[in-house]
Amino acid sequence: MEIVLHDDVETFARLARPLLAADPVRHTVELTVLDGLCRGGGRAAALLTVHEAGEVAGAALQTPGRPVLVSAVPPVHAAAVEEALAAAGPALGAAGPITEAEAFAAAHATRTGACAHAEQRTRLFVLDELVAPVGVPGGPRRADERDVDLLARWRRAFAEDDRGAWTSPETPREIVLGSLRLATGELLWEVDGAPVAQAAARPVVAGMSRIGPVYTPPEHRRHGYAAAVTAAASRWALDQGAQRVLLFTDLANPITNRLYPRIGYRPLHDTVELRFAA
C-alpha cells in the first residue's frame, strides 16, 4: 500500500475521479468539491490518494478551514491516511458517512490524544419521483448577479440557523459569486415579484446533482415555499441531465426530515461532521 500527497489538483482528479464516480451518491460531496476545484472554484488544503496493487484504493481531500472529506477512505487505511495528512497541516476534523468519519477520528485520537465531537449529523436523501407541491403562490426564477447581495445575506442566515455562526473562511458574497460562476442552479421563489425562498442545485457531476442550501426567511415560513423552491431546483437538475438528485438534511431538524419525503425524496444513509479538539 502506498499513500501519495498531491499538490496538483488535475493530477489528483485524474487518479481519484474514477474511484469517486464509481459511487457518485456516496461520494457526492467529494465529487462536487473536486469539480469546483478543477474549475477554479477555490483551492485545496490537502489532496491524497491510496494505491494498492497498482490501483487507486482510496482518496481524501480537504479545503481550507473545512474537515477532511473521507467517504473514499477505507477504514482499514484510516490510520495511515490520517498520519500522512498530518504532514500537510493540522486536521480540523473529518466528514463523511459515519463508518469512515469515525474510523478517521479514532486514528487521529490514537495518534494525538485529541477528542472529536459531532459538529453536525445529517441524512442523505435521493429523489425517486418528483412530486411538486400544488397551490403554492408564486413561482421560480433563476438567480443572477443582481441577486448576489440578497443571496449572500441568506447564505449567512442559513449558516447561523444551521450551525449557529458563519464558519467558512470565504465570505458569503464570495461563496455566492463562486456559485454563479460555476453555473450552479441558484433558484429563487418569488411571490408578486418579491423573493421569499431560495434553493441551489449543484452542476451535474458523474450523473449527480445535489440540492442545497435551501433557505426561507422566518417571515415567509409555513407557506410551502421551501418545498416549492426545492422541487423547482430538483426539476432544474433533472433538466440538466442529472440521473440522481440528492440532498442532505440536519438530523436535528424534524421539519426538513418530514418535508423532503413529501416531494419524492427517500433516505439513504447518515453522515457526520466531526471536529477535533485537544
UniProtKB/TrEMBL annotation:
Residues 138-278 form the N-acetyltransferase domain. InterPro entries: Acyl_CoA_acyltransferase (IPR016181), GNAT_dom (IPR000182). It comes from the Bacteria. Gene3D superfamilies: 3.40.630.30. This is GNAT family N-acetyltransferase. The lineage of its organism: Bacteria, Bacillati, Actinomycetota, Actinomycetes, Pseudonocardiales.
